[in-house]
Design brief:
The structure holds two protein chains of two kinds. Chain A is of the alpha/beta class. Chain A has helices at residues 6-13, 57-63, 95-101, 116-126, 133-146, 150-153, 166-178, 196-209, 222-228, 246-251, 256-262; strands spanning 17-28, 31-42, 46-50, 74-82, 85-86, 102-105, 184-188, 214-218, 231-236, 239-245. Chain A has a single domain (43-62, 94-262), classed as P-loop containing nucleotide triphosphate hydrolases (Rossmann fold). Chain A is 37% helix and 25% strand. In chain A, helix 4 (116-126) packs across helix 5 (133-146) and helix 4 runs parallel beside helix 7. Chain B has one domain: Phosphate transport system protein phou homolog 2, domain 2 (Methane Monooxygenase Hydroxylase, Chain G, domain 1). Helices cover 80% and strands 0% of the residues of chain B. Chain B contains six helices and no strands. In chain B, helix 1 runs parallel beside helix 3 (82-116), helix 3 packs antiparallel against helix 6 and helix 4 packs antiparallel against helix 5 (150-180). The chains are: A alpha/beta, B mainly alpha. Chain A binds chain B through residues 222-223, 226, 250-253, 256, 258-260, 262-267, and chain B through 1-3, 6-10, 13, 79-86, 218-219. Bound molecules: adenosine-5'-triphosphate and magnesium ion (MG). Magnesium ion (MG) binds next to helix 2 of chain A.
């Protein structure tokens, strides 16, 4: 693992980025999937990661909460910090605490085969956030409320979560992610299994959550990236080709590869 | 950017964009022809040709309608981005400018009919010269637009000032005639109006140059055009 030295870290602390990635590389066995990514994730903003299939979006996203640790044969190099604290190397944040601060929502809604209530209460329980049942109840209600699901499920909190519709399940997973009050939410194609209405609900939710969280979303929909994000990063073959304000990326991209991809000329 | 105009994976998308450009090419040709006919009518004192210009305006309007429809279709069905988006927005704006160009040509033709009921005026020659210059500008900028040629667009843009200067001096020339002989006022004021329509067509050509530049480079062309008021110079 190559670690950037202390002065670089100190210098980077000066930026207001929530998450800072420098020279991030990932290998799966002998295959290199990321070739040194430098990217800042700002707080209270949505950053969209776009690019052709296999370019390394999910791999990069997983670097931000050490999910690659769980992938056999994956090696991460370079530097990632959360509020200036390193995620890897000596003095790294504890991965369990890190994942409380950096939550994740996956492509396919993956509720646990438990009740709606237990799904949302899961994180707060394992982190022992609330001693009193009433406080936990309140936290569950607040998370469901913020995820825009409360009114649809408040009378069936103890029904099985798997009985919800796909869109409801995805919002439940978002509620589960925000129940522990994370600072960053990572979403890997969160709407790919949803219909336009459910998608719109999730997008509206992302917009609201942005006030309190930094959000990184991987999406294959250019329109979705354009609608929900303020910053867009274009990945290609393990490289970060271009990053900038979303409006600029979609009206006047600087790099030809970006233009070719977003306009549907390759990819 | 060299990828502007390159093919897409989805061929029907290219076909729809091509349809849009084809309408624009036809519309540009029609607008140019209208201006050419209006100038010929003015130069030859030919009211019959002038009437043809008036009748020809509807075809240009119909093209604009087609551009509007095709633009709406592309925006709704394709959600174009980057250069495609600029392409579609530029088409809409270029069509708007061409529609105005044709209107001005028709208006010049209407005034030609009135001029032909009056004795010929010497400044008509300068007026035709100015009109021809504007015509060349229009021709070049349409070529630049259709060929994604930002350099030519920039060059045309720079020539608008020449037109404004020609307009200002023509204005003074015509005014001199009016002041010397009050009987020329009817015809001379028509000449002034025609000069104004040519000056406006120059402005529309300049707008098209700006859209072309933006379409190709994604950067706005500095809109600063030195404005020369024709009433400058203590008339
Ligand atoms: N567990 C793994 N083992 C080996 N190679 C992997 C693994 N996960 C990903 N890769 C490889 O790493 C590269 C990047 O994969 P990644 O999943 O990050 O791409 P992606 O941009 O998210 O693609 P998609 O849009 O299809 O989800 C690909 O070449 C992929 O085959
Ligand atoms: Mg992926």
């Amino acid at each position: 693992m190559t670690m950037l030295d202390a002065p670089t870290l100190a210098e980077n602390l000066a930026t207001d980025a929530k998450i800072l990635a420098r020279g991030v590389t990932v290998h799966y066995g002998a295959k290199q999937a990321l070739n040194g990514i430098d990217l800042d994730i700002a707080g209270n903003r949505v950053t969209a990661l776009i690019g052709p299939s296999g370019c390394g979006k999910s791999t990069f996203l997983r670097c931000l909460n050490r999910m690659n640790d769980t992938v056999a044969g994956a090696r991460v190099g370079g530097m990632v910090t959360l509020d200036g604290e390193p995620l890897y190397g000596p003095g790294a944040l504890d991965p369990v605490l890190l994942r409380m601060r950096v939550g994740m929502v996956f492509q396919k809604p993956n509720p646990f085969p438990k009740s709606i209530y237990d799904n949302v209460a899961f994180g707060p329980r394992i982190h022992g956030l609330f001693a009193r049942k009433a406080d936990l109840d309140e936290a569950v209600e607040r998370a469901l409320e913020r995820a825009g699901l409360w009114h649809e499920v408040k009378d069936r909190l103890h029904d099985r979560a798997t009985g919800l519709s796909g869109g409801q399940q995805q919002r439940l997973c978002i509620a589960r992610a925000i129940a522990v009050d994370p600072e960053v939410i990572l979403m890997d194609e969160p709407c790919s299994a949803l219909d336009p209405i459910a998608t719109a609900r999730v997008e509206e939710l992302i917009d609201e959550l942005r006030d309190n969280f930094a959000i990184v979303i991987v999406t294959h929909s250019m329109q979705q990236a354009a609608r929900v994000s303020q910053q867009t990063a274009f990945f290609h073959l393990g490289n970060l080709v271009e990053v900038g304000p979303t409006e600029r990326i979609f009206t006047a991209p600087e790099h030809q590869l970006t233009q070719g991809y977003i306009t549907g000329r390759f990819g | 950017m060299p990828t502007v105009g390159d093919d897409h994976i989805v061929k029907s998308y290219d076909a729809q964009l091509k349809t849009l450009r084809d309408i624009l090419a036809r519309m540009g040709g029609l607008a140019e022809a209208q201006l050419d006919m209006a100038l010929a009518a003015l130069e030859a004192r030919d009211s019959e040709t002038a009437m043809k210009v008036k009748a020809g305006d509807a075809a240009v309007d119909a093209c604009e309608q087609q551009v509007n429809e095709q633009t709406l279709r592309l925006l709704a069905l394709r959600a174009p981005l980057a250069d495609d988006l600029r392409q579609v927005v530029a088409a809409l704006k270029v069509a708007g400018n061409l529609e105005r160009v044709a209107d001005h040509a028709a208006s010049a033709a209407r005034r030609t009919v009135i001029l032909n009921d009056n004795p010929a005026m010497a400044p008509t020659r300068s007026l035709v010269r100015m009109g021809r210059k504007v015509q060349v500008m229009l021709h070049e900028v349409l070529g630049a637009y259709l060929a994604y040629d930002a350099d030519t667009a920039l060059a045309v843009h720079g020539r608008d000032q020449e037109i404004d200067e020609m307009h200002a001096s023509l204005f003074r020339e015509i005014l001199t005639y009016m002041m010397e002989d009050a009987r020329t006022i009817t015809a001379a004021s028509q000449l002034m109006f025609v000069a104004k329509t040519f000056e406006r067509i120059g402005d529309h050509a300049t707008n098209i140059a700006e859209m072309t530049y933006f379409l190709v480079t994604a950067r706005p062309l500095d809109r600063h055009r030195p404005r020369r008021d024709v009433f400058d110079g203590g008339v």
